[in-house]
């Protein structure tokens, strides 16, 4: 079997279920950006230092789920059952709550800085937000999507943010605050302004 098919030479790719789409189509953009995110998470896993190896299994599990998420976006009209399920979001929420509760209290934006692993996790957060924007654009074209996969991406960016902070905290690395930030994590006091 050859790795190349020549099918994409004219700018098309195959979707799950046998359909095809232009490589520039919103659906392809969505699952392509999820693939980019997964590669960044792979780099993050590969870059873990010896003291951070306890994160290996958790992050590899997330890579599996991120692949599932990309697969769901490559599947138009639910041509096969979707893979991202509500319990994945529950798992993320539990992790988010844990890491947030174990990190220093903040009331301002922080810069993506600190340890290499923390910065890599911030990059994962950024790639997740990009993937989410691309996924949401499918709704503007009335494309069928797995709503659980959209929720998964939304929680996933929060997960990477709190984990990046927690990794810095575990390493004794102080965070660098954005100097012009207002109080953002206590929104009851600052409903009128976000920056």
UniProtKB/TrEMBL annotation:
Keyword Nucleotidyltransferase in annotation: no
Pfam families the record matches: Cob_adeno_trans (PF01923)
Enzymatic reactions: 2 cob(II)yrinate a,c diamide + reduced [electron-transfer flavoprotein] + 2 ATP = 2 adenosylcob(III)yrinate a,c-diamide + 2 triphosphate + oxidized [electron-transfer flavoprotein] + 3 H(+); 2 cob(II)alamin + reduced [electron-transfer flavoprotein] + 2 ATP = 2 adenosylcob(III)alamin + 2 triphosphate + oxidized [electron-transfer flavoprotein] + 3 H(+)
Pathway: Cofactor biosynthesis; adenosylcobalamin biosynthesis; adenosylcobalamin from cob(II)yrinate a,c-diamide: step 2/7
Enzymatic class: transferase
Domain Cobalamin adenosyltransferase-like: 3-167
EC number(s) per entry: 2.5.1.17
GO MF entry, a single one: corrinoid adenosyltransferase activity
Record keywords, A-Z: ATP-binding, Cobalamin biosynthesis, Nucleotide-binding, Transferase
Highest rank taxon of the organism: Bacteria
NCBIfam families hit by this protein: PduO_Nterm
Family per record: Belongs to the Cob(I)alamin adenosyltransferase family.
Full protein name: Corrinoid adenosyltransferase
Organism encoding this protein: Candidatus Enterococcus murrayae
Lineage, top ranks: Bacteria, Bacillati, Bacillota, Bacilli, Lactobacillales
